[in-house]
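Protocol step 6 of 9: fold each sequence in the batch and record its structure tokens directly after the sequence line. For illustration, a two-sequence batch is reproduced in full.

Sequence one:
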Amino acid sequence: APNPVAGAGRTSKLEACSILARQVLVPLGYRTEVVVTARPRDGHSQSVRAVADGVELLVAWGGDGTVNEVASAVAFSSSTLAIVPAGSGNGLARDLGVPLDPAGALQVAGSGRDRRIDAGQLGDALFFNVAGIGLDGVIAARLALPRARRGLVGYVQAVCLEWPRYRPRRYLLRGDGVEYEGPAWFVALANSRQY
């Protein structure tokens, strides 16, 4: 599910993505259907329908947010998730060793080996790489704004804007025999070798 929030020339970019997906996946024996997301949670709802329809392979083409939406729908099903990294960080794709070029990622999607990964849960939401609350969550929310600058520069800018006004909050954390209660700037839960 390519994410169309890519800026100028988006129609031609989407068409090029569709053509590339077909060029790589059809010769590998896949019948392809390209579905484009238009708003937040589209990737999840469209993927839930695809899983219910028995689609074997869902390819999430986008950043970590798009990947998380599709992965949340695929989790615990018989469908397989593949990733074409197209975000500013691509944390899960990097952790899994997915090629960063679209053609290479599609090749792995169509002919790579299946691999089970863990899913973390924070409240009712699943995560597949990192989830954070506190300052981490505030920064993530700022970076999710429509005109936010992405990448390392955007992250540093968001930290510089939010840090001075943020006040640590009190948390109670319990899990697997570990308990912590007290103030913290943020809490990050990682399901990744990078963290």
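Sequence two, same batch, same settings:
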Amino acid sequence: MVDSWEIWSDYHPHKPKRYAGEVWIGYDPSFSGDNAALAVIAPPRTPLGPYRILEVKQFNNIPAHEQALYIQKFIGMYNVSYLAIDNTGNGIAVADHVAVFFPHLTRLNYNPDLKTEMGLRTKELLQKQKLHFDSGLTVVAKSLLSIKKAVTAQGRNVTLVTTRSAQTGHGDLAWAIMNGLTKAPLIHTVGNTGRTTARIKVSS
């Protein structure tokens, strides 16, 4: 958590074009009882720089075509090079609407392996202090902390689930952030020579 007003001189939240560099957008569509959530992420401008969550937004009780309109609005405010949407359930309809004006979007078809990979990537970035967001966005921290490991119904795989609260919904912001980060590599270089690796063990 950082003081973005002090250190992000290239981000201007009150201007029509808020940030000149490229951004990635992750979107978690709304289902019954959930919020929809959008996260705008600036990838590092230097090899050792951080990923920055510039902005997050939550929506409630709006149909798929209106969710797409909100996404279109954010595309108009940023230079979006990557857009990833959960393509399950109502996400299929949202993605179909978005594809009309952003045809190269990435559709994420959730499964235990993908969700585990998404969680490992985000955990790694947080542990290395490579994922930054404004200290005022405490809802982001709470949403990330709502992500828990669990065993699938068949008992064969480990997956990720979220605990629900009035403030974090169903971890919607966390999923939006992790969706946006799917373009980031899972293995990151430390310094100039060191490397770290992450292993995923899946039971048969």
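Proceed to step 7 once all outputs are recorded. Observation for sequence two: Residues 148 and 161 are 5 Å apart (CA to CA).
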